């Protein structure tokens, strides 16, 4: 994998320099699609670099040129590069927009905790293209929210170097510690399916063996690290107002701090001590000493530029962007095929491919479209009723090249 390279250093530099902002009405246009392809290539190259432990040239380019602007591609790229504190520090005031974005995604994640997704049996009943697209959109939104959680955790790693405005927005405006407690309580990345515990990991729901059910999941770990950073950092503690509500929410954490959890994350013993002290302390009245507050500039600018224009923008896009011909669609499909090279996708995959029918580890791929994996011929035959239409379309697209 270390020898696999999607972009040469010079090519990556050109792509990063070329990143630019687009007007809302341009989204979906040829230029927007080209930038989306470039972002995907940068994203995959960043994952390859991180996996091979070769240094981080993509991260260095983004810091050097100050380019961090598509949603799923960007949040995945941010998750990869924000592991490095210098990226967060170089983002400067735009971190405020990123904090707001992560807060919106996590709030929606908590709000949908009570609405369980369809079971595997129900998923198999999706038949129309519109239902399939809706299912994919919901899954993508869910995955984006989980990526936002990771990005937020990396931001909290830099909490002592964040600006006062960003710190105030995290602790006072959004009260992120309490939101993180809600996430731990509901654990939207875990569910019971057919009497078995499943956790969402590596882009899919996976059944957890009984022997590993006490093991801390990666996403739970991200929440605990973020809480640790926000509650025990000297800078954060100096600016966080522990009101009666905040105190009540945070004390719920005591029930989660079991010996099993502390064995896996020993540093949480400090958090346990903080909560024991908090239980005996008096709640603080709400603070009202912040007179000036910095506003997220990107979100504010978008709202001001497009206020009252949303219907006109939608009409323009319908007429000029989303009314493409069949030939245009085939050309775009060909470009996507060239972007998503199979050898690169296999290299950046977090685990071995899984059978599209039974989810067992797979070693055989559909010979016609090369898109689906199977563990055996029997599973491929059983899955054909669902896979057949998309397989024929993909094969036709390949022949059109």
TrEMBL record:
GO terms for molecular function: zinc ion binding. The keyword Ion transport does not apply. Its main location: membrane. Residues 355-391 form the MYND-type domain. Plays a role in axonemal structure organization and motility. Involved in axonemal pre-assembly of inner and outer dynein arms (IDA and ODA, respectively) for proper axoneme building for cilia motility. May act by indirectly regulating transcription of dynein proteins. Interacts (via C-terminus) with DNAAF11 (via CS domain); this interaction stabilizes DNAAF11 at the protein level. Interacts (via C-terminus) with DNAL1; this interaction stabilizes DNAL1 at the protein level. Interacts with DNAAF4, HSPA8, IQUB, RUVBL2 and DYNTL5. Belongs to the ZMYND10 family. This is Zinc finger MYND domain-containing protein 10.
């Amino acid at each position: 994998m270390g020898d696999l390279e999607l972009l040469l250093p010079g090519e990556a530099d050109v792509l990063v320099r070329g990143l630019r902002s687009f007007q809302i009405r341009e989204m979906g246009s040829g230029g927007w699609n080209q930038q989306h392809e470039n972002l995907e290539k940068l994203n995959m190259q960043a994952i390859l670099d991180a996996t091979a432990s070769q240094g981080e040239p993509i991260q260095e380019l983004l810091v050097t040129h100050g380019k961090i602007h598509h949603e799923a591609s960007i949040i995945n790229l941010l998750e990869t590069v924000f592991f490095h504190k210098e990226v967060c520090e170089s983002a400067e005031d735009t971190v405020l927009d990123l904090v707001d974005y992560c807060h919106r995604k996590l709030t929606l994640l908590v709000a949908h905790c009570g609405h369980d997704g369809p079971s595997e049996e129900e998923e198999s009943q999706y038949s129309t293209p519109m239902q399939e697209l809706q299912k994919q959109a919901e899954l993508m939104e869910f995955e984006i929210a989980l990526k936002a959680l990771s990005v937020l955790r990396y931001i909290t790693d830099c909490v002592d170097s964040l600006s006062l405005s960003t710190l105030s927005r995290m602790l006072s405006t959004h009260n992120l510690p309490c939101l993180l407690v809600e996430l731990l309580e509901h654990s939207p990345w875990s569910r019971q399916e057919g009497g078995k515990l499943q956790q969402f990991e590596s882009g899919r729901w996976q059944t957890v063996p009984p022997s590993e059910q006490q093991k801390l999941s990666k996403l739970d770990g991200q929440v605990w690290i973020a809480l640790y950073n926000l509650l025990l950092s000297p800078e954060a503690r100096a600016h966080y107002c522990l009101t009666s509500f905040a105190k009540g929410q945070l004390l719920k954490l005591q029930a989660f701090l079991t010996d099993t959890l502390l064995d896996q994350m020993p540093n949480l013993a400090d958090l346990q001590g903080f909560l024991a002290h908090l239980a005996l302390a008096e709640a603080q009245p709400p603070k009202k000493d912040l007179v000036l507050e910095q506003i997220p500039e990107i979100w504010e600018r978008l709202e001001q530029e497009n206020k009252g224009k949303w219907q006109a923008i939608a009409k323009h896009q319908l007429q000029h962007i989303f009314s493409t011909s069949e030939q245009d669609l085939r050309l775009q499909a060909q470009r996507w095929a060239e972007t998503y090279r199979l050898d690169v996708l296999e290299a950046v995959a977090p685990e071995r491919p899984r059978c599209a029918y039974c989810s067992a580890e797979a070693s055989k791929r559909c010979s016609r479209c090369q898109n689906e994996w199977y563990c055996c011929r029997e599973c491929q035959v059983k899955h054909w009723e669902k896979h057949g239409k998309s397989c024929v379309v993909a094969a036709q697209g390949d022949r059109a090249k």
